[in-house]
């Protein structure tokens, strides 16, 4: 497909929609998740394409529902069809039983099944074929996350010239972990087929460079800051660190709305105006939910003065329920919640309120606004947007962010007032919570104001602009807005 204006083409494992079959009819609704939150506002204002798997197995007739959604969304959606076998090998297998645990420092959970690797390559080829079909030579292809590390390699093997950037949303591990991967050199080489490889943090980029030196010593590495260049076999790629963010104004405005203000009051009234501690996570072993519950237990043991003075609300969003390991984690969390509540509950008070479900956005923001303390304590995380969403929604600027030092957001938010903890040190986490209870409200206001200001300045539009500028020497303004559509950064 030739000619036409410059467009941004986003490629990710999933389309930014949720697909369901209701009475024999496919229904498409807007999806959730950090990537959708990050890019949907940009594509809506700028136009473009989004290519990804629909979530259905096999070829399903969703052309008309997708076209209708595309008209309303302001950008085009193009599905990649995966068979049941490909979903099992590429998605559940290689992506989630190899790369996900390995890159999060859980190598003992990896299943290095050789058939998974072949499925991964086959699926990446399918994605590349859809990119070729719907993109133009002038398009900028922005590929997202660990599911599609081989896409640029596939495009170049097909002889299709495209400018390609890649962003890794999860951490990149150090050599002592990454080198356990049987296909380690092939992964590194495939990433160097992109014009720019973006990481969440400078530490992730440094880990990649260390792995690169170990596996491909013939590669030439030069530069500093976001100008690090790698040259191998006459081809040069750039490596950058771009901490992803959120649409700050969208969260802040919703938190300030009358609807959310009323919901916030209702939540506080239901919990009898006690202090609210809040955890919000997708159900995953990387999020440290069991350790967080143990920290609450330690808080109640070591600081009995806090009993009946707070409620800890843990929201766990269902995830990968078909995987036995995740179901086992759910059972473990429920057991721990029952233990702690059974140990410390009093008439009219239970310490932990556990919600296992997704919440409407307005309810989630109301919980953010109501929470006096947010516990964002993953064992390992690429960035963690919950930390930023909480701060943006804390319009009273009286909240406290307690953040894992192993979250990508730690480097950015520590210097602006977040309280860093080691999530494995449950006694240490309890002490930080106790201190937050007894810190002057003026200190909370100063810290939260600084946190919100830093996130407001480095919001999602800043993230996209900084990536495109580094990848293609292009700003968002180089992608003309759709007629009649305004853009606000």
TrEMBL record:
Pfam families: Glyco_transf_20
Protein name: Alpha,alpha-trehalose-phosphate synthase (UDP-forming)
Database matches in InterPro entries: Glyco_trans_20 (IPR001830)
Family under the similarity heading: Belongs to the glycosyltransferase 20 family.
Gene Ontology cellular-component annotations: cytosol
Single GO MF descriptor: trehalose-phosphatase activity
CDD domains in UniProt: GT20_TPS
GO biological process: trehalose biosynthetic process
């Amino acid at each position: 497909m030739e000619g036409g204006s410059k467009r941004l083409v986003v490629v990710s494992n999933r389309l930014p929609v949720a697909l369901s079959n209701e009475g024999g009819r496919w229904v498409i609704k807007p999806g959730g998740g950090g990537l959708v939150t990050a890019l949907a506002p940009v594509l809506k204002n700028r136009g473009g394409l989004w290519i990804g798997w629909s979530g259905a197995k096999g070829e399903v007739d969703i052309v008309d529902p997708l076209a209708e959604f595309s008209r309303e969304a302001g950008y085009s959606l193009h599905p990649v069809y995966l068979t049941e076998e490909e979903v099992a090998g590429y998605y559940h297998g290689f992506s989630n039983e190899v790369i996900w645990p390995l890159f999060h420092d859980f190598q003992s959970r990896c299943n290095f099944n050789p058939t998974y690797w072949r499925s991964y390559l086959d699926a990446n080829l399918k994605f590349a074929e859809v990119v070729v079909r719907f993109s133009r030579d002038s398009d900028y292809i922005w590929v997202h996350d660990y599911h599609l590390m081989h896409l640029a390699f596939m495009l170049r093997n097909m002889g299709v010239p495209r400018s390609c950037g890649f962003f890794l949303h999860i951490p990149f591990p150090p050599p002592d972990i990454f080198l356990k991967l049987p296909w380690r050199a092939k992964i590194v080489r495939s990433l160097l087929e992109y014009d720019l490889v973006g990481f969440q943090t400078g530490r992730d980029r440094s880990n990649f460079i260390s792995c690169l030196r170990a596996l491909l010593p013939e590669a030439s590495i030069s530069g500093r800051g976001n100008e690090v260049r790698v040259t191998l076999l006459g081809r040069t790629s750039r490596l950058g660190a771009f901490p992803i963010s959120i649409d700050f104004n969208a969260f802040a405005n919703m938190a300030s709305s009358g609807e959310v203000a009323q919901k916030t009051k209702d939540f506080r009234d239901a919990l009898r105006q006690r202090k609210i501690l809040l955890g919000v996570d997708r159900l995953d072993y990387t999020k440290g939910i069991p350790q967080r519950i143990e920290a609450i237990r330690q808080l109640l043991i070591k600081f009995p003065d806090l009993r009946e003075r707070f409620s800890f609300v843990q929201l766990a969003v269902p995830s990968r329920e078909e995987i036995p390991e995740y179901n086992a984690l759910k059972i473990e969390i429920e057991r721990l919640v029952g233990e702690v509540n059974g140990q410390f509950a009093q008439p009219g008070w239970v310490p932990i309120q556990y919600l296992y479900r997704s919440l409407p956005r307005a309810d989630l923001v109301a919980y953010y606004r109501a929470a006096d303390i947010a516990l964002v304590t993953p064992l390992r995380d690429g960035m963690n947007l919950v930390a930023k969403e909480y701060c943006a929604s804390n319009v009273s600027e009286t909240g406290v962010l307690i953040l894992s030092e192993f979250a990508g957001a730690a480097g950015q938010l520590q210097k602006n007032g977040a309280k860093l903890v080691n999530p494995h040190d449950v006694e240490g986490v309890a002490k930080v919570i106790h201190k937050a209870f007894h810190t002057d409200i003026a200190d909370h206001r100063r810290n939260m104001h600084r946190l919100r200001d830093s996130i407001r300045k480095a919001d999602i539009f800043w993230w996209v602009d900084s990536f495109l500028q580094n990848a293609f020497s292009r700003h968002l303004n180089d992608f003309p807005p759709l007629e009649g559509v305004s853009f606000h950064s």
